[in-house]
Specification:
182 residues, mainly alpha, Rna Polymerase Sigma Factor, Chain: A, 2 domains
Length: 182
């Protein structure tokens, strides 16, 4: 979380304060960029571009929303811009589950990792147009209107894609559970 005091220092031109903002938010920014652009090197470029936009626009940040919300929107815009430069939307990269820390007697850790891997595979099986909407809405909480603007489509199309994506995910996830029980 970035404090209002740290943001005030950034607005005053304190570079050390801005470096602290970058340090505190870099993991989330990079992860979001990677999920959207699907390439580690491009995600680094997107993160750098996003921070440049933040630095330039910080004086205009009104604080109506949380800083992190504003930052995620900037990252999403930078990522979509990067994709448009390439002329296509690539496959979305999803977080890969990290190796779980094994706690003796903890079957829940392994179960959660398996559930996450199953969800990752289900998301990866979706067409990009559906996956992008699910990631932007369900992971980052973007409003339908903003997703539509980012993807260059209508709000109605976003709602339809989101419904279709969730239905396919449900069908796929619960179909595999039903198959396991037989």
């Amino acid at each position: 979380m970035v404090s209002p005091e740290l943001l005030a220092a950034c607005r005053r031109g304190d570079r050390a304060a801005f470096e602290e903002v970058v340090r505190r938010t870099h993991r989330q920014v990079y992860t979001q960029a990677l999920r959207i652009v699907g390439d580690r090197h491009e995600a680094e470029d997107v993160a750098q571009e996003a921070y440049l936009r933040v630095f330039r626009g910080l004086a205009r940040f009104r604080g109506d929303a949380q800083f992190e919300t504003w930052l995620y929107r900037i990252v999403a815009n930078a990522a979509i811009t990067q994709l448009r430069r390439r002329g296509r939307f690539p496959e979305l990269a999803l977080d890969r589950p990290e190796d779980p820390v094994e706690v003796p007697g903890s079957a829940r850790v392994a179960e959660q990792a398996a559930d996450r891997e199953e969800l990752t595979e289900a998301l990866a099986s979706l067409p990009l147009s559906l996956r992008a909407v699910v990631v932007l809405k369900d992971v980052y909480g973007f409003p339908h209107k903003e997703i539509a603007d980012l993807l260059g489509t209508t709000e109605g199309a976003v709602k339809v894609r989101l419904h279709r994506a969730r239905r396919r995910l449900k069908d796929q996830l619960f179909a595999s559970e039903a198959g396991d029980e037989v």
